[in-house]
Amino acid sequence: MSVKLYLQVRHSDQIESNFALNESEYLSSIRTKEPYQASYSNVKEIVEQEGSIFETVWNESIPAKYKIREIQEGTESEFLEVIYDAQKARDIYIDLARSVDNEALLLFANSKAMVRADRLGVVDYLIKASKKGASIKIICPITEENSEIIIQISEK
After folding, report:
1. Is the bond into 35 cis (omega within 30 degrees of 0)?
2. What is the pLDDT of residues 103-112, one digit of tens each?
3. Is there a domain that residue 147 lies in?
4. Domain containing 67: what range?
5. How far apart are CA 44 and CA 92, in angstroms?
6. Is 98 in the same domain as 69?
7. Is the entire prediction scored with pTM above 0.85?
8. Are 58 and 10 in contact (CB under 8 A)?
């Protein structure tokens, strides 16, 4: 008689706690200095709640084999993050423009997007990258609103 084992390991950088649960019990360690402390419950609602938390984290984590490959190959993790904080999005946008070495491709949905990019200094970083030999390609509607920026880019 063969027994099929079902065991999976995933990786997450998001967790700073430890817990274990089964169908009817929950155990969590509490981060303290000595002595070790833990929280235990067999209350059905708590077990269900912690199971829901686990499933959320599980769905956002990656299979261990991918993380192990990244470690072995020395590559960076691939990820997709939805950013809700406008300031964080601006900071990332500026850092992205600042870090262009070889190529940047930009697609602006409207002329106002280019105006916003210019106000943030993104256009200046792109011009600097272009002067260092990077290929910069921009697609955008050109209107009176952004025509001065287009002229500025063309002159520099």
Report:
1. yes
2. 999 999 999 9
3. yes
4. 10-73
5. 43
6. no
7. no
8. yes
